[in-house]
Specification:
The structure holds 2 protein chains of 2 kinds. Chain A has one domain. By secondary structure, chain A is an all-alpha fold. Helix content of chain A is about 75%, strand content about 0%. By secondary structure, chain B is an alpha/beta fold. In chain B, α3 packs across α4. Chain B contains 10 helices and 14 strands. The chains are: A mainly alpha, B alpha/beta.
Chain lengths: ~250, ~300
């Protein structure tokens, strides 16, 4: 095994050992959202013609679960290692900055996908969800979770304390997720809000992801793909730069 | 010969606080080297900079000829660090911890060596126990083991015996001595100066971020003129008047006389013979590293004022 494989294995093992909390619990909470929205809104809302609200909602909720867990994985791993001090074992090793980056990001992608897939499979038991373009689904879920994994790494490196990380999560990640069209299509919004939504990179992740299921989207999936890819690139460059300069890691 | 560690003009400050000023230090391969100094002298900072955990503001460091920044991968492969803090990853067992650590170095099939270190550090019973469940001494052993997974030629131990019981201290030193005999360069910091004195060939003393002494342990102690003395119990209990100028103290019938070198012992003995004085008890007192340490720290303290 190379250093990269080892760190990836360690990161996977870390969340897998507490899988009840890192995989099962978020699945349950996502399914609870679904249950509540299904009960309240199913009969009243139709977002796309001929698509039931719950059917519309499920891909959004799956993506939300993916986003939150991808972020949670890298950010909590990093801040726990920093606070308990065991990050030195990684910092003392000859692991390259890129290897550290990719190991953390890939572990985040795996956890995001695992939770997302879990939610999706459970909903399949109760609902009939089309899956028109599975490759688009896969593409967006991987890119989306990678972006959040990288953001989590940045947040974990930046935060000195758990409450700073919680602030990052509650004031940046959560609003961007909720206002990205998880629960609605942005076309239903007033024009000002629509414009604002287009500044939110999470909007493109979810819109593109949903396109894979229904073949319909608010904007062209190619535009979404381009924007999401550029975002991933920019955030990755920032994260690798932080690792390379030792920002808040090597004092 | 290639120095194991070469520190050139290293300076480090945090804001206005100068932690290291212009450190120059060369540690030879195969040496058993001690880095001594009071708390806050900059020992751990220097070690952190050598390890790449901390970045110097200026100056450069090579480990086995590899620059610690530009050739960080080669430098770190040559270096094993035992950190001062008892850090551990609570998700894993001892064996997992060691296998993961050796994986970071990209070493394939290292299970055999990992098992050997586990055995040599007396961790066999604890190999499959979670790190959280270990006592402080056991955690310390795992830290030592972790620094050795990649068989580094240079090993730095930052206060390895702080808060460790006598038995483990002995085991640990025997093990480290063995490593040194096998050709590893050892650098350690400790506040137990008698440990440094018995183990180390060479010593650097740090104070307020500066090296205030750098020499072989023997030379440092040898240079001490102060602190050598001879203690005598005499019959009759009277010191000949010729020897009275040398007297430091007279307690419970024991005279302590100051001497500058051991040649003086002969003249003291002949003075005693001349007065028919009988020696009941005699001890030669010589300074140890602790005396050297205290005197150097005092001296350099006066200099800086």
């Amino acid at each position: 095994m190379t250093g990269f494989h080892t760190l990836l294995y360690k990161e996977l093992l870390r969340f897998w050992k507490v899988g009840f909390q890192t995989v099962l619990a978020p699945m349950v909470s996502t399914l609870l959202y679904l249950l509540v929205f299904f009960h309240v809104l199913e009969a009243h809302v139709e977002v796309y013609p001929g698509v039931a609200y719950t059917t519309f909602l499920i891909p959004g909720l799956v993506m939300m679960a993916v986003i939150q867990n991808a972020f949670a994985n890298s950010s909590s791993s990093m801040i726990q290692s920093k606070i308990s001090g065991n990050i030195v074992f990684v910092l003392l090793s000859p692991l390259s900055y890129q290897a550290i980056f990719f190991a953390y990001i890939l572990a985040s992608v795996v956890r995001g996908l695992l939770v997302g897939l879990g939610v999706y499979l459970v909903t399949l038991i109760f609902f009939d969800i089309p899956l028109q373009l599975p490759l688009w689904v896969l593409l967006f879920v991987i890119l989306g979770s990678a972006i959040l994994g990288a953001l989590g790494l940045i947040a974990g490196i930046w935060a000195d304390k758990f409450d700073q990380l919680a602030a990052f999560q509650n004031f940046i990640i959560l609003p961007l997720t909720f206002l990205s069209g998880v629960f609605y299509t942005v076309h239903s919004l007033p024009i000002g809000w629509q414009y604002l939504s287009h500044l939110n990179p999470f909007f493109y992740m979810i819109d593109g992801f949903r396109y894979g299921f229904f073949g319909i989207s608010d904007i062209s999936p190619y535009i979404s793909l381009t924007i999401v890819a550029i975002c991933l690139l920019a955030i990755s460059i920032l994260a690798i730069r932080m690792l390379k300069t030792g920002y808040k890691l090597r004092f | 010969m290639l120095p194991a560690i070469e520190v050139k003009q290293v300076c480090k400050h945090y804001g206005n606080l100068r932690v290291l000023s212009n450190i120059n230090l060369e540690i030879h391969t195969g040496e058993f080297f001690a880095l001594l100094g009071p708390n806050g002298a900059g020992k751990t900072t220097l070690i952190s900079i050598i390890a790449g955990l901390s970045l110097a503001n200026s100056g450069s460091i090579n480990v086995m000829g590899h620059h610690v920044i530009t050739q960080y991968q080669q430098a770190r492969r040559n270096l094993g660090i035992v950190p001062q803090e008892l850090v551990f990853d609570p998700f894993f067992t001892v064996r997992e911890t060691l296998l993961i650590q050796s994986g970071y170095y990209g070493i394939k099939g290292n299970a055999h060596w990992v098992d050997e270190i586990i055995e040599r550090l007396d961790l066999t019973d604890k190999a499959n126990v979670n790190m959280r469940a270990l006592s402080g001494g056991m955690k310390r052993r795992v830290l030592v083991a972790q620094a050795l997974v990649h068989k580094p030629p240079v090993i730095i131990l930052d206060e390895p015996t702080a808060g460790v019981d006598v038995e483990l201290r002995q085991t640990l030193w025997d093990f480290i001595k063995q490593l040194n005999q096998d050709g590893h360069t050892i650098v350690l910091t400790t506040h137990y100066l008698e440990e440094a004195e018995t183990l180390c060939n060479r010593v650097a003393m740090l104070k307020e971020g500066k090296i205030v002494a750098l020499d072989s342990t023997q030379n440092l102690i040898g240079k001490m003129t102060l602190g050598k003395s001879i203690r005598l119990r005499l019959l009759p209990d009277t010191l000949p008047s010729t020897l009275q100028p040398l007297q430091i103290s007279h307690n419970d019938g024991v005279y302590e006389l100051r001497i500058e070198n051991y040649a003086q012992v002969e003249s003291i003995l002949s003075s005693l013979r001349a007065t028919q004085c009988q020696i009941v008890e005699m001890h030669l007192q010589q300074p140890d590293l602790e005396d050297v340490f205290v005197s150097i720290m005092k001296e350099s303290g006066n200099l800086s004022k």
